[in-house]
Amino acid sequence: SIPKAKFLVVNFPHNPSTATVTPQFYERLVALAKEKRFYIISDIAYADITFDGYKTPSIMSVEGAKDVAVESYTLSKSYNMAGWRVGFIVGNKKLIGALQSIKSWLDYGMFTPIQVAATVALDEYGSIPDEQIIPRYEKRRDVMIEAFTNAGWPLAKPNASMFIWGKIPEIARDMGSLEFSKQLLLNAGVAVSPGIGFGKYGDEYVRIALIENENRIRQAARNIKKFLKELEEAKKNG
Questions:
Q1: For residue 42, which of 59, 61, 195, 196 is within the disulfide window of CB 3.0 to 4.6 Å?
Q2: Are 40 and 8 in contact (CB under 8 A)?
Q3: Residue 226's closest CA among 191, 198, 190, 187?
């Protein structure tokens, strides 16, 4: 028999698929957690990176969510602090107490200057995501969608996160995501994350990070166009 769930981890905007949800999703989820008696761990690492008018909802906006849920946030994405490992968690007192106990066993706390920098970022530079981070990622997203589509690799446009979850071009789909990623790196000089690394249902996809500037993205598209053309010719010639 299937064991009874104790925890459910949700991550929206989602990595790697970039999927997003509405507040109604969390309302139903909280109700289900109370009915089935399990806890929810909500990770909103990419909450600030949203486009086209979409705003990430918080599970904590649902009445009674603190009875069954915690929600974690990081400054890694919104404030370019990747690697600093600074963030916070809110919600159910029992779960946060358990996390506090585990943390006390593992380390003595975060390096103080990093804590100070994070505090300054939140207190004095809270507009940074809206004014600098989001426009930068949105521009890269739009350039990539256009350039890759023109190169023969149409991509779906995400409305959140710093990734594009791209379905492998049809001509190369039989390779699977791991082999396609290898060939893309070797023949086009473009690095992506194979979807199989995120589970078997991701094998027709690759995750593309929006971390390069627009010129580099256009160069990648030119290389990909050449690679796909060569692949098509090779298949025609048997």
A1: 59
A2: yes
A3: 187
Token pair of 29, please? Answer: 């989820």
Q: Is omega for the bond preceding 16 within 30 degrees of 0, making it cis?
A: yes
Residues of the domain holding 69? 7-124
Q: What is the pLDDT of residues 189-198, one digit of tens each?
A: 999 999 999 9
Bridge partner residues of 10 (DSSP): 42
Pair (42, 63) in one structural domain: yes
Which uninterrupted H or E stretch holds 103?
Answer: helix 93-106
Question: What span, in angstroms and rounded, lies between the C-alpha atoms of 11 and 47?
Answer: 10
Whole-model pTM over 0.85 = yes
2-11, 25-34, 119-128 — which one is most confidently predicted on average?
A: 25-34
The token pair at 178 is 């791991």
CB 86, CB 75: distance < 8 Å: yes
Number of domain units in the chain: 2
Residue 216's SS3 state is helix
Question: What CATH number is given to the structural domain containing 65?
Answer: 3.40.640.10
161-183 burial code (b ≥16 CB/10 A, e <16): bbbbbbebbeebeebebeebbee
Q: How many residues does the chain have?
A: 238
CA distance 228 to 183: 10
231 token code pair: 């692949």
pLDDT band at 216 (very low <50, low <70, confident <90, very high): very high
Q: Based on the domain organization, do 172 and 200 belong to the same domain?
A: yes
Q: What is the 3-state secondary structure (H, E, C) of 66-94?
A: HHCEEEEEEHHHHCCCCCCCCEEEEECHH
pLDDT at 37: 96
pLDDT of residue 146: 98
